[in-house]
Amino acid sequence: MNTIKSTTSLLLFLSALFLCSFSSGLFPTMLGYADEAILVLALIILTLNFCTSKKKSRFFLLLWAYLIYSLINSAVSRFNPNLFYAFLQALIHMKLFVVAYVSVGLFLASRSGIKIAKNLYFIFIILFAVGMIANYIFGASWNNLLSSEPIQYRYGFIRPAGYFGHYAPNSYFFSLILITLFMLSTKNLIIDKSVQVRKFYLLIVIDFLAAYPLTVRKGLFMIIPYGLYILSLLNPTKRAVFTVCASVFIAGFIFFISDSDMFLDTISNFNNFFTDDHAYIRGLIVYYGFSLFSEFFPLGVGNGLYGTYFSNMNSSVYEYVGLNLDVLTSDSGALLGVYDSGISAFIAESGFIGFVLAIFIIKEFFNYNKKHLDSYNYKIFKIITYFALILSITEPVWQNGFFTTFYTSSLLYIYSKNYRYKINGAWRKITSTSASPPLNQETTIAEAP
Questions:
Q1: How far apart are CA 111 and CA 23, in angstroms?
Q2: What are phi and psi of 195, to 5 degrees?
Q3: How far apart are CA 398 and CA 361, in angstroms?
Q4: Cβ contacts of 304 within 8 Å, gap of 6 or more
Q5: Cβ atoms of 310 and 333 closer than 8 Å
Q6: Nearest-10 crossing angle of helices 83-93, 342-372
Q7: How far apart are CA 350 and CA 345, in angstroms?
Q8: pLDDT tens-digit profile of 301-352?
Q9: Omega of the bond prior to 298 within 30 degrees of 0, cis?
Q10: Which of 19, 20, 76, 184 could crosslink 401 through cysteines, CB 3.0-4.6 Å?
């Protein structure tokens, strides 16, 4: 992003990103396509930068390889997709990574990036807190004000619209800020392993307790990448001890909640991923998504035809797998309940070749952030990004405007806390003399990427 050096560009881009949080709730008609608009703007910025920079972006080249491939696999599809919609859907599949990549580039080129990123992040936190408090004070009347969704209750709690007009974004945001603030609260050149282990157990308890008032279990996926991060800190012996202790803790925790509605619902839903002998829409989308991936290997069925917004306009794939469209169609003619698994929709539409191209795009996204973050901040980046990848099994988070907004704001906040220890432009390992740990404290040096 060397040619984009305007603080104004960053401010305008992040302001548009901020407006995505209004896309359902306050102004659903006016800003319903705000996330698509910001995606197109990001693509324009990427293209302009590529054309004017001497050093060409591999991310840009890989992205366009995937977009061109999406036109090819759609052109040969037996289901006759609309090529324009196919191209847009392919771009939407990469929304999270494209928007985050451009945002980081603009941040790094801006002199006021740190202040802008911090202000954006804490505005979101305040709005989230105010929205949740107001929702539980005013109850159903708040939902009627902010959300067009039918009022629902789960586990004895009203499903809160919060500030974002829908219950799922509340969980997305809570999980992302929890892990980001948890790790940045003790950021140091010296990583205290014992503190990180204690945080892991505390995270499980907080995330589970929050699942009840938020009425969603998605945040519990965060346990997986955070647990892997803890393992990466430990030597082989202590890694084995931690694995045993964590397994015993989680097993005891599961036994304690085994009779709860949340646990029983989760197990039932998970089991429905492996069969089509049920009416659970998310389970059917996952099951048929992987079935289509296998049957139409290696090209897929074509973008915009399965499990995505544009599949509203062509029902042939749903008819092919035998999904009952009468159950999936609302009074307005739109499909309901099919946008529940980002990875299933992606692999069904883009096939094996598209999946491989996506891996290369994501890998380049990791490499880009590794070059610009110190080692501790890069670990936080990996946790929230792995969370997004894992969560895509049950949510369309790569394609979701809310998650993209929250993820990007968290990532930029991580960048605002980045400590740049460089020698001749390269990261260097920090020696213990740089910041000596207290005596008798088990620590490890935070090594640079």
A1: 29
A2: -65, -45
A3: 13
A4: 74, 81, 82, 85, 86, 88, 89, 310, 311, 313, 314, 349
A5: no
A6: 50
A7: 8
A8: 999 889 888 887 777 888 888 887 666 666 655 666 678 888 999 999 999 9
A9: yes
A10: 20
* Residue type for position 380: I
The DSSP string of 208-223 is: HHHHHHHT--GGGGGH
Q: Taking a C-beta distance cutoff of 8 angstroms, is the pair 107, 117 a contact?
A: yes
Neighbours of 239 (CB within 10 A): 14
For 47, the 3-state DSSP assignment is: helix
Q: What are phi and psi of 396, to 5 degrees?
A: -85, 55
d(CA 221, CA 219) in angstroms, rounded, equals: 5
Least Cα distance to 145 among 156, 131, 157, 125 occurs for 131
- The answer to whether 134 touches 142, Cβ cutoff 8 Å, is yes
Angle between helices 83-93 and 34-52 (to 10 degrees): 80
Residue 427 three-state SS: strand
Instruction: Give the span between the Cα atoms of 236 and 234, in whole angstroms.
Output: 7
Q: How many CB atoms lie within 10 A of CB 9?
A: 17
Q: Which residues contact 331 (CB under 8 A, 6 or more apart)?
A: none
* Structure-token pair, residue 228: 């892997």
What single-letter amino acid sits at 358?
Answer: A
Confidence band (pLDDT; 50, 70, 90) for 440?
A: very low
Q: Residue 423: enclosing H or E segment and its boundaries?
A: strand 422-423
Angle ∠(92,159,97) on CA atoms, nearest 5:
20
Per DSSP, 373 falls in state: S
Longest dimension (CA), the chain: 68
- 210's tokens: 């929050």
Q: Phi first, then psi: what are they for 405, rounded to 5°?
A: -65, -50
pLDDT in tens, 72-95: 999 998 888 889 889 999 999 999
Q: Look-up: residue for tokens 């954006």? A: 120
First to last CA, the chain: 21
Distance separating alpha carbons of residues 47 and 223, to the nearest angstrom: 37
SS3 305: coil
Degrees (nearest 5) of the Cα angle 116, 119, 121? 105
